[in-house]
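Appendix B: complex inputs.
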Amino acid sequence: MVGENVRRLLAELPAGVELVVVAKGREPHQVLEAVEAGVRIVGENYVQEAERAFAVVGDRVKWHFIGRLQKNKVRKAVKVFDMIETLDSLEMAGEINRKCGEIGKVMPVLVEVNSGREGAKSGVFPEQVEDLVQSVSNLANIKVMGLMTMGPRTGDPEESRPYFMETRRVMDRLKALKLPNADLEYLSMGMSNSYRVAIEEGANLVRIGRKIFEGE
Ligand SMILES: *Cc1c(COP(=O)(O)O)cnc(C)c1O
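Resulting structure:
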């Protein structure tokens, strides 16, 4: 079932849109099944879970961190992940930069946008993104490659559209700045229920879990 769901999704996604299979709460063998069906990027919310899946799947795919990063997990995270999609503070950027410096790695990151301006949510408000990207672009071992957003949890995917639109506008403004050490290639938006709307609004990374592992 997992393999079939992956193949159906891959056939549906337009050219230039990449699938991130979200593996949170899944067993390594389930992740492997998705990978064997043609997945190229796996998203993980937890460092330890990623290490377990990595032990089975290995480096034949790219690993994206999509959870809330804790400072004491950064050393492990920078080893296993190829991209951190949820950067939302200069303090965390400094820590990632330091730990990457120790192992001679440059970490691609996406800045997470709190597009719904929700109090308890991670991410920076749209109007703060530019400042953070400017500061982070001075760090030698981090490369900003775009933006990620979740948006408020909704039942109807149409309700997510304004938040995707807003994130896209922030991206366009950033691109216009032509920052020297940023390569603004990726807009990561949309999950199982909302990826079609997200793609219409410019997403080129979609993060999908349930639709693949539960067929929803
Ligand atoms: C769980 C999760 C997803 C995937 O959600 P589904 O509804 O399972 O597709 C995407 N992005 C993040 C950050 C998540 O935590």
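The mean pLDDT is 96.
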